[in-house]
Request: fold
Amino acid sequence: MKVRVDTPDVKFPIRIKVPYLFLKLMTSKAILKRILKKSGYSEMIDQIDSKMINEVFNVLKEYKGTELVNVSAKDGTKVKITL
Reply:
């Protein structure tokens, strides 16, 4: 997944590449349990199906290059997120 932010204040765009492995790691049950526990939503951990989330990421890999977000603000800021 690629995130690109263009702002008129900065001469070059900000680009962030997020590997699918990192996304899968952040959605693992152990990591989600820690995040939800700190945010006060620990009861939600039983409702999350980690296998289904991993399956979603596997399907998203097939749509590489698909544009998820392409937004422009009035001040000239542009945000683009692609798979």
Notes: Residues 31 and 67 are 28 Å apart (CA to CA).
